[in-house]
Amino acid sequence: MFKSEPLFLVLEYQYAGSTAGGPQGNEEHMNRSELVSLAGNVPERVRGRRAVAHSDVTITLDFEDAVQWCLDQLAESDERLAASAANYDWKVAIVTRRDGVAGGQVRFGVAWYDRSFYEAKCDVYLGEDHVRMFAGMGSDVADVEVSHYELAA
Q: Can you give the pTM of this predicted structure?
């Protein structure tokens, strides 16, 4: 489901030092957010399963090569998840870049379909394998923000 071209593009203008009233002659910056994957959000991937928890993940990367490598890793994992009814699945993936700033943020969700699996694995990103993977992207755990939400039964 990961595409080389964005599925959807959002342009957001920000003004340094602006207030709710708009820019005040300060430098304009544009953020560009690209929806790069629907992943497990499509019905054939959900397969009638009901999520018991959801995680939002944001990885901040300093170089475009690192952003692309991260997307490639997610795409490989996404292919494996698409072929099975795993206890979790990726959700929408979005890349946000800021004009004039190298790198960007990769944001994606995780749907958890088994409570005991979620409880055992929700912090897997802190493990040795993921720490090595982050190092390969020139980042570390401090560059990763994860929020977990347990869903009502």
A: 0.79
